[in-house]
Design brief:
Layout lengths: L4 H5 L4 H4 L3 H17 L7 E5 L1 H12 L6 E5 L10 H10 L5 H11 L9 E6 L8 H13 L18 E6 L5 E9 L2 E9 L2
Parallel strand pairs: 1-2, 2-3, 3-6
Antiparallel strand pairs: 4-5, 5-6
Helix pairs in contact: 3-4, 6-7
Length: 196
């Protein structure tokens, strides 16, 4: 499927990445629904695909007080690009922005009851639109948010050493590798990579 320019770069809007724009709109919707139906924060999970995944990462980082966890399929980290012009380079090669610092700044300003906010990220190993490095950088950002010591370990382009990892084959011969990171026995990040 061909993506429109607006679909691809929507998650890279600087206002959205800083907690305004679409992030503020969705945060207001979450608050309204929670208030109307008396929904506990621990029952609110966000999911997004591609640019929607970028929005989910922005909401999870900028408003962790509203949700219990995030699921991102083929998305990018919060603050990965500073403009729409940077978006395509980030999709192809990842970012050189200090994503962990964005997460550490958030962790410093929110209360301890707000964290952890766990992440489940799913990515295809041969994704030609959103390079798999973005999933690794997203995991690193959430590890920093949740104060996991591996956030800065290893190569910045790859996954940090996981606390546990498994691999399984599907009926069609693909290998699915699942890596997990925990803090005090609580899952804070799970990365699922599907070959192909």
């Amino acid at each position: 499927r061909q993506s429109t320019f607006e679909e691809v770069v929507g998650g890279f809007d600087p206002a959205t990445a800083h907690g305004w724009g679409e992030t503020a709109i969705v945060a207001a919707q979450i608050r309204a629904v929670r208030r109307k139906y008396r929904i506990d924060r621990q029952r609110v999970f966000l999911a997004g695909l591609s640019s929607g995944g970028g929005l989910v990462s922005a909401i999870a980082l900028r408003r962790p007080d509203l949700i219990a966890g995030a699921f991102v399929h083929s998305g990018v980290p919060c603050g990965a690009a500073s403009s729409a012009l940077d978006a395509f380079a980030v999709l192809e090669r990842g970012t050189n922005t200090d994503l962990a610092q964005i997460a550490r700044d958030v962790r410093a300003r929110v209360g301890p009851r707000t964290l952890p906010v766990p992440l489940l990220v799913l990515h295809g190993g041969e994704d030609s639109v959103v390079a798999p490095v973005n999933a690794a950088q997203l995991v690193r950002q959430f590890l920093a948010l949740n104060d996991h010591p591996a956030a800065n370990a290893g190569s910045p382009e790859g996954l940090p050493p996981p606390d546990g990892s498994t691999a399984a084959s599907t009926a069609d011969g693909r290998v699915v590798t699942t890596s997990e990171w925990r803090v005090a026995d609580r899952l804070v990040a799970r990365h699922v990579l599907v070959d192909g």
